[in-house]
Design goal:
Blueprint lengths: L10 H12 L3 E2 L4 H9 L6 H10 L8 E6 L3 H15 L7 E7 L2 E7 L5 E3 L4 E4 L6 E9 L2 E7 L5 E3 L8 E8 L4 E9 L16 H14 L6 E2 L1 H17 L12 H7 L2 E2 L3 E8 L2 H10 L1 H7 L6 E9 L2 E9 L3 E2 L9
Helix pairs in contact: 1-4, 2-3, 5-8
């Protein structure tokens, strides 16, 4: 149920807060239900509920977060909102947000990376991509079918032949300047409740490995072995993400999954990386399992090893999964001093 917005203190404060938010994201009324849910239950809402509220309004955002603040001086509230948006919003042109107020409480809902997807008939869509996004691809996966990858053309159009009797999860993945990122996620075809992971017992890297290999077993794939070299690379990247409060495959041009392995002295012919931020490991694993671009990595038949890193900061868990094919230590080169 939607509620009318209530000014926290004054019209001037409301305008100031909206203006502050607008510098970090594009206001989008489709996120109001998510902000309202956060106001209704500040301690009990989940990321999945916020995302469902948003998708019900037509925005297929891969992730939705919310910040709830209870009262305080107008300037302090605005500063807190801007700091939070700055931490979570990778690109202002890609980030959508909405502000809701009730009494002395204010909530902000944020979709850090989200683009609009418009159906164009059976199994075809138009994707509104901003100028800085490149190499967009539609990824479609199902537990009962091979994953499909279809490039989005220069006009933003894409089509894929999908069996309507099969449950599909679709995702638009593109490079937003920080490495590949999901920009839209939605489902097509029949519903498949088996896609949802219900196990709430994930509390260590060992449990995450077991959950990953259980997925692979259901798909008829060999289990992944835990590799200590990959573990260390994943652990360090998870710690770095937690310090920055951001989820990025490529924080800089010289900090990529490939360079992180190279700098650790690891050689391999194939690398893939999954990143997730959530309140629990179970939620992080669920997000990866339901995301086509991440599920492709989880079910990659060409990799045989995985490293898992976990870090915690600010009530959030950062999960890094580093996949590789036959990783080995690089040969040591002796330095000869003339």
């Amino acid at each position: 149920m939607l509620v009318a917005w209530t000014l926290l203190a004054s019209t001037a404060f409301a305008d100031g807060l909206d203006d502050a938010a607008a510098t970090r994201c594009t206001p989008d009324a489709r996120l109001i239900p998510a902000a309202t849910r956060a106001l209704d239950d500040p301690r009990g809402f989940t990321a999945d509920e916020l995302r469902a509220d948003t998708q019900a309004r037509g925005l297929r955002a891969p992730s939705v977060y919310a910040l709830v603040l209870d009262g305080g001086a107008a300037d302090a509230v605005s500063d807190a909102v801007v700091r939070w948006l700055t931490t979570h919003a990778v690109s202002p042109s890609l980030s959508r947000c909405a502000v809701a107020r009730r009494g002395r409480s204010v909530a902000v809902a944020l979709a850090p990376r989200a683009v609009d997807v418009h159906p164009r008939g059976a199994s075809s869509w138009h994707v509104e991509l901003p100028a800085e996004v490149r190499d967009a691809t539609l990824v479609a996966t199902s537990a009962r079918a091979t994953a499909l990858r279809v490039p989005v053309d220069a006009r933003g159009d894409v089509a894929a032949t999908l069996d309507a009797r099969t449950p599909w999860t679709l995702q638009v993945v593109a490079d937003d300047g920080h490495g590949p990122a999901p920009l839209a996620t939605w489902t097509e075809g029949a519903r498949d409740d088996a896609e949802v992971v219900r196990d709430d017992a994930l509390w260590s890297t060992r449990h995450v490995l077991a959950a990953v290999n259980a997925m692979r077993a259901r798909a008829g794939l060999a289990a992944l072995r835990r590799d200590p070299m990959l573990d260390e690379v994943a652990r360090r990247h998870a710690a770095a993400l937690a310090v920055r409060g951001a989820v990025e495959h490529t924080p800089s041009a010289d900090d990529t999954p490939w360079t992180r392995l190279r700098d650790a002295g690891v050689e391999t012919t194939r690398v893939a990386e999954n990143l997730a931020r959530a309140s629990t490991l179970t939620e992080a694993h669920q997000r990866l399992a339901r995301s086509p671009s991440h599920r492709v990595n989880l079910l990659d038949a060409e990799v045989d090893a995985v490293g898992i890193g976990i870090a915690r900061a600010g009530g959030a868990i950062y999960l890094v999964e580093m996949f590789a094919a036959r990783p080995s230590m690089a040969a040591q080169r002796a330095e000869v001093t003339p």
